[in-house]
Structures are given as C-alpha cells and as structure tokens.
Amino acid sequence: MKDFMALYQNLVERCFNNCCNDFTSKALSTKEEFCINSCSDKFLKHSERVGLRFAEQNAEMMARGAQR
Prior knowledge:
Helix content is 82%, strand content 0%. By secondary structure, the protein is mostly helical.
C-alpha cells in the first residue's frame, strides 16, 4: 500500500506541475484536461513497463541461482 501511495503521489505531483498553470478558474481547461490525461496515461504505462522489466530481471536472476 505504501508503494502504491508513493506512486500515486509522484503521478499527481508530476502531472499537476506539468499541466496545471491557469488558476483563474476552478475548472480545468480543455488543454489542461488533455494534458493531465496524457501525462497520467504515460506515467502509468511507464510504471507498468518498469515493473515488468524488474520481474523479468528477477526471474532471470532466480533461474541463474537455481542452476548453481
């Protein structure tokens, strides 16, 4: 749970800082909304890919360790 919350916090902070820059309205502009959606989608896909690569690396290390 702690790792998920850290991932979520990083996502929110990064996308907010990159996309939200007009504070004259409570609502997001169309441009900001598109940016937030793109940013979060890219961030989550990247995190998923990194997780899969770590799992692959771990499986390879475990297989090498079992061969010894």
